[in-house]
Amino acid sequence: MLLLLLIAGHETTVNLIGNSILEILREPGMAERLRADPEAIPAYVEEILRCQGSLHMATARYTTAPITLGDQDIDADEFILISLAAANRDPARFDEPDRIDLERPGSRHIAFGHGIHHCLGAALARMEATTAISRLLAKFPKMSLDGEFGDPTWRKSLLIHGLTSLPVRLAARTDSQTVSFADAARFSSRA
Ligand code: HEM
């Protein structure tokens, strides 16, 4: 239970925040838009959950009986991997699935799973991401990606969709203030 809570409750949220900040900083105008309208941040978090969610896969499943899913027949006792990432970019379900669209109606993604195992911490994760994004945008009005430290890099993981490092340059609130970080801060997580 502890292992589940540590991985389910920590890695997922850390990487959701990292993925969100990357997309905000590389999409021209997005940071300004969210700063001007912080009420749009929850919709932004839903879009990141959908198209840059922090889990590629749900936990493993086994079929207990033969089943047909779409045009696929699956026997009993088969091992099943469910790709949340593919489902969340399914063009049959989402118009322009690769685009972050703050006006996209409803939250129809399955980043938090579905059914009886739907994520226990979904509300907490949404709150953490919304709080982190709004505080970072408000505190660092000139935050930008810092190419000097290299490009953001993705972890090579079948399960976690997150960055190994996200070099970010923070800037002072006004030109006269200096940020006490040594030029840049790194949001990083273990590979
Ligand atoms: C961005 C953050 C998160 C994402 C993307 C996420 C995603 C998921 C997904 C996809 C499942 C279902 C797995 C399956 O059906 O195989 C799940 C289950 C679960 N999550 Fe999360 N999760 C997040 C944050 C959290 C947090 C913050 C907690 C706890 C503090 C948490 C606790 C759990 C637990 C206990 C389950 C198992 C529920 C069950 O099997 O009944 N998760 N999560």
Automatic annotation (TrEMBL):
InterPro entries: Cyt_P450 (IPR001128), Cyt_P450_B (IPR002397), Cyt_P450_CS (IPR017972), Cyt_P450_sf (IPR036396). The keyword Lipid metabolism does not apply. The keyword Transmembrane helix does not apply. SUPFAM superfamilies: Cytochrome P450. Keywords: Heme, Iron, Metal-binding, Monooxygenase, Oxidoreductase. Pfam families: p450. Belongs to the cytochrome P450 family. PANTHER family: CYTOCHROME P450 YJIB-RELATED, P450, PUTATIVE (EUROFUNG)-RELATED. This is Cytochrome P450.
